[in-house]
Amino acid sequence: LGGLDPMAQRNQRKADALYAEIDRTEFWTGHAATHDRSVMNVTFRSPRPELDHLFVQEATAAGLMGLKGHRSVGGLRASIYNACEPASVDALVGFMAEFERLNG
Hints:
Elements: H1 4-24, E1 29-30, E2 41-45, H2 49-61, E3 76-79, H3 86-103
Helix pairs in contact: 1-3
């Protein structure tokens, strides 16, 4: 895929797209301070834990897997490591916007 620099840029674009959706609205809240955000594991939550649970259920049904947050932190977590395609992040961002529209 072009080496380390192109992969770093690709990963940053994926993270930027996901954080842009989180920051676009007050519905989603990121766990980490802006300057501490991970490019590989994006952690966030909805306004209520029951919505986090519903989000995971509906996302899984839509083919978006592994979004449940860490057991000690809760919330939601998207792991967007190197193998994660940008199209997968785009699908998640679209799903998040629709989930907010229906549940916000």
